[in-house]
Design goal:
heterodimer; A: Aspartate Aminotransferase, domain 2; 7-stranded mixed sheet; 15 strands
Chain lengths: 460, 496
């Protein structure tokens, strides 16, 4: 086996040193009746070239080379080459969690820089080293608010990513945390009147997303006011991190639970991604996840260590703030490098291109289908209602090697034939025009079918 | 220090400040293509939501970024440099073909919501990996959704709770041996179960008599790591399972130490009802400085209705798809389907090994741990003489007489060119030194480690202060962790 660095003679010498005759004797502690006497049913040992070919074959079955208008929590942005070049260095790729600080300063300093940049972008005072993803970060942020307020009820916006809401429901159910869901208005944003009624003196926190699942930007300040008036906390989930390049962060939020996938992380069929929690300094001791802090060594030299570990499972066991151990460190490094490449000016310009592509696409689609939620600002997603079922339109679009917007009826049956479309700096005008053309054809054929039906009606 | 030159030599590495300290206005490492749609008036589109300033985000050029991160990288230890004998962490070689195939275009660019018709490749990967892991564990079904081991534990215990709930009583507590990893009790708490400790016997195994007396209808499950954190296989495992099952309880296995078992013995065959795997341990996906991981949960048939949604199914027309309509499911534990990129890597690892390679891997891992034990048992105290599987736990008892503790010896190992072993864990061994070499180490590397440990033991006798002040060869010496926690500085600010 090519990964194993031993010759038969090495094995023999080692066995002899231990005083054993065969490798099987090493397994004597395992009662014989449980030992497996057959080969595992896994593929036979394959050459590297065969493995590469097998996965390329899977790639070709997986929409390779298609243009996509999908977003909804997983965004196609350009990934500068430098990212993979740097994270492929074995010293980053094959290092463990930096518990031994003296030989982990590279990882530790990069996390410290990551925490700093997340604070700058979110307007928060502290950020952790990463969570699994945006959905679990949101659920853990809510549990953090429950601990901080000593209250148990949670109010969730229906305009939150529906899968994030499902994850929160899973986390909350067994904690006896009642969840109330608040609907959205004609502008696609949280219905503030309904929200005000749902929040009470028992509410631990409100969880909203901005830009929300429909791409519209919530009025986070107004929502924060409702939360704080009732002594509740505001948790804001941000699924499209790039929005922070041009959209004001929710500065009155108490906790921000972010998905940073947009920053240089492959869409990769849903993971691995990079969740992050950012909050105020005064809440840090209830924060889940690892934190890196600055300190000095015996000579007074600056260095970095994992800190405030008394929140964590390896110290506090069942009293820990979370059970999280392994996080998404290498993905956080991708995010870190991406933020460094684009930096202060680039992130804004990149976000602006997303805004422009989306504004153009929304306008074009709006001329054919019906653009929903027009009353509020949006970032790079928009919702279009068509006369025809969007699944049917999408299936024709596949013929043009294009994946259309996400039909919403699965998550929001009340929106009928609406679909959520996303444009980023990667979306070309040609692709937009092609998709719009197909929607136009669909609308005109529905209209002509309707006309024929009307004519028949009259004739009868 | 007589052996030091055999493994490591000191060399110059570059100083490097924080990226913010290199930043100045007008530098940049990006260039956007020309816009092919009309420019927009951001004020008109965003109104008061428009952001004007990105604060202290850095502005640096590409060469500075390359040097910055390359310099930082040289300050890290890594498997690629040498043995990383962290007990229970299974720091094995991370094959490069895994990285290559995870970046194949249609997989790296596959969107989780693209139509099933153009997702057959990804679905086939999910299905193939699931089938492999089911046979490796001897279980009946699996979910790949959990993002890491602890997340898998939570998912497993949620299913345990749902199972008991379906029988009318969710039960109250989880039994956890005193040798367990900290995530086990933390997970039980997250699923709202009380934790009851179970003590180990003189051989470092579950005290079966204690289990018998503590087991009752309030106990939902026992969370057991097998081999346990002493590297010891629970020889009475079937008795343990029987005691639990007799009172309606379930056996949860923490699969952190599965590297000792793959291809040799299957948890499903010795009475386990639910278990998680760590793809970033046993199945070679890289640790990446702390993640990402992946924590699939394998279960017996009786727990199948409770699997998280969605599950992969074969459709009547032969294609694969996701099934969402599962009324008894515990729900989702993560958006989308889990850390897909890790599935690709783990499957590539399984394919590179095949059944024979996986078995040989396990044999070599156990061989290395036993060779390590043999090489060090004359020098360090071995608190449990029970046979060793994939890792061995010594204690600092002999060295403590000279005032040198496990952490000091660990830090001194750094000067010899090795990453330290796991210190002060498991908790049942005072001054624990937990060593897991994995199969990735050659006899030569093992011999160098044994030499280093032997040499350090001599130093403890001759010059304990040398060990107490270690490491001597790193760019920073021991860091003040107390100050870091007392006055936390968790981000850079201009001027500090």
């Amino acid at each position: 086996m090519r990964y194993l660095p031993k010759s038969p003679a090495d094995r023999e010498a080692m066995l002899k040193a231990i005083g054993l005759r065969s490798l099987d004797e090493l397994f004597a502690p395992i009662p014989a009746e449980y030992r497996l006497s057959r080969d595992l049913k896994v593929p036979r040992q394959m050459a590297e070239s065969e493995i590469v070919e097998w996965f390329k074959e899977r790639s070709r079955e997986n929409g390779e080379g298609y243009t996509s208008f999908l977003g909804a929590g997983a965004y196609f942005h350009y990934r500068p080459v430098v990212i993979d070049s740097l994270i492929s260095r074995g010293e980053f790729l094959t290092a463990y969690t930096p518990y031994q600080a003296e030989i982990s300063q590279g990882t530790l300093q990069s996390i410290f820089e990551f925490q700093t940049m997340i604070c700058e972008l979110t307007g928060m005072e502290v950020a952790n080293a990463s969570m699994y993803d945006g959905s679990t970060a949101a659920a853990e942020a809510v549990m953090m608010a429950v601990r901080l307020t000593g209250r148990r009820s949670v109010v969730v916006a229906r305009s939150l990513h529906p899968e994030y809401r499902e994850v929160l429901t899973t986390y909350a159910t067994h904690q006896g945390m009642p969840l109330a869901v608040v609907g959205f208005g004609d502008d696609g944003r949280v219905n503030l009147e309904e929200l005000a009624k749902a929040v009470s003196g028992e509410t631990a926190c409100l969880l909203i997303q901005s830009p929300n699942f429909f791409g519209t930007i919530e009025d986070a300040d107004a929502i924060a006011e409702i939360a704080h008036k009732n002594g509740a906390m505001l948790v804001v989930s941000i699924a499209e991190a790039l929005s922070l390049g041009i959209v004001e962060p929710p500065r009155h939020a108490d906790v921000i639970a972010m998905e940073a996938q947009s920053f240089g992380v492959p869409v990769a069929f849903g993971g691995p991604y990079c969740g992050v929690i950012a909050t105020r300094e005064k809440f840090v001791r209830q924060m889940p996840g690892r934190l890196v802090g600055q300190t000095t060594d015996k000579q007074g030299k600056r260095g970095f260590v994992l800190t405030l570990a008394t929140r964590e499972q390896h110290i506090r066991r069942e009293k820990a703030t979370s059970n999280i151990c392994t996080n998404q460190a290498l993905v956080a490094l991708m995010v870190n490098i991406f933020m460094t490449i684009y930096g202060k000016a680039g992130l804004r310009e990149l976000a602006k291109q997303n805004l422009a592509k989306t504004a153009y696409a929304a306008e074009q689609f709006g001329k054919q289908g019906k653009l929903l939620f027009t009353g509020a600002p949006r970032f790079n997603e928009f919702v279009v209602a068509t006369s025809e079922d969007p699944y049917a339109i999408n299936s024709r679009l596949l013929g043009h090697k294009t994946v259309g917007g996400l039909p919403l009826k699965k998550f929001f049956p009340e929106l009928g034939n609406a679909a959520l479309w996303c444009c980023t700096e990667m979306t070309t005008r040609t692709a937009i025009d092609t998709a719009v053309g197909l929607v136009a054809e669909s609308e005109s054929s529905v209209r002509s079918l309707k006309r024929e039906a009307d004519v028949e009606e009259v004739a009868r | 220090m007589k052996h030091m030159t055999r493994k490591a030599t000191r060399h110059v590495n570059q100083n490097e400040g924080l990226i913010f300290e290199k930043s100045s206005a007008g530098k940049g490492a990006w260039k956007l293509p020309p816009l092919d749609v009309p420019e927009v008036d951001t004020k008109k589109l965003l109104g008061s939501s428009e952001r004007k300033d990105l604060g202290n985000m850095p502005e640096v050029s590409e060469i500075e970024i390359i040097r910055h991160f390359t310099r930082l990288s040289t300050w890290n230890y890594a498997i690629d440099l040498g043995m990383y004998p962290l007990g229970s962490c299974t720091m094995k070689y991370n094959p490069r073909v895994n990285e290559h195939v995870a970046r194949v275009e249609g997989l790296a660019d596959g969107h989780p919501y693209q139509p099933e018709k153009v997702s057959q490749g990804a679905l086939r990967i999910l299905q193939t990996l699931s089938e492999c892991l089911i046979d490796i564990t001897g279980m009946d079904a699996i979910t790949l959704q959990p993002a890491a081991g602890a997340h898998g534990e939570m998912t497993g215990l949620l299913m345990v709770r749902a199972y008991h709930q379906s029988k009318g009583n969710a039960r109250k507590k989880i039994l956890i041996p005193d040798s367990a990893h900290g995530t086990n009790p933390a997970t039980a708490a997250m699923v709202n179960y009380a934790v009851e400790n179970l003590k180990s016997d003189a051989r470092g195994m579950v005290d079966v008599a204690a289990l018998e007396s503590q087991m009752n209808e309030d106990v939902a499950a026992l969370m057991l790591t097998n081999p346990n954190t002493l590297g010891v296989f629970e020889q009475q495992i079937h008795k343990i399972a029987d005691i639990l099952h007799a009172k309606g309880g379930l056996l949860y296995m923490d699969g952190a130490n599965m590297n000792a078992l793959v291809g040799k013995v299957r948890p499903g065959d010795f009475g386990v009802d639910v278990m998680h795997l760590n793809l970033h341990k046993t199945f070679s996906t890289p640790h990446g400085g702390g993640g990402p991981g992946s924590g699939p949960v394998a279960i017996k048939k009786s727990l199948e209705p409770f699997l998280p949604t969605p599950v992969v199914i074969a459709k009547p027309d032969g294609t694969l798809g996701f099934e969402y309509n599962r009324p008894k499911s515990v729900g989702r534990v993560r958006a989308f389907y889990g850390n897909f990129g890790m599935f690709v890597r783990a499957l590539a690892y399984i394919m590179a090994n095949g059944p024979d390679g996986l078995r040989q891997t396990t044999e070599d891992a156990v061989l290395n741990a036993n060779y390590m034990r043999k090489g060090l048992e004359a020098t360090y105290d071995l608190p449990y003489s029970t046979p060793t599987m994939h890792e061995v736990v010594f204690s600092d008892k002999l060295q403590a007489k000279n005032g040198v503790r496990t952490m000091d010896i660990a830090k001194r190992l750094i000067d010899y060119g090795f990453h330290p072993y796991t210190t002060a864990f498991p908790l049942i061994v005072p001054g624990a030194m937990m060593i897991e070499p994995t199969e990735s180490e050659s006899k030569e590397e093992m011999d160098l480690f044994i030499e280093a440990m032997t040499s350090i033991a001599e130093e403890v006798q001759e010059d304990p202060q040398l060990v107490l002040d270690a490491p001597h060869s790193t760019r920073v010496s021991r860091l003040d962790e107390t100050a870091a926690a007392r006055k936390p500085v968790l981000r850079w600010k201009p001027g500090n």
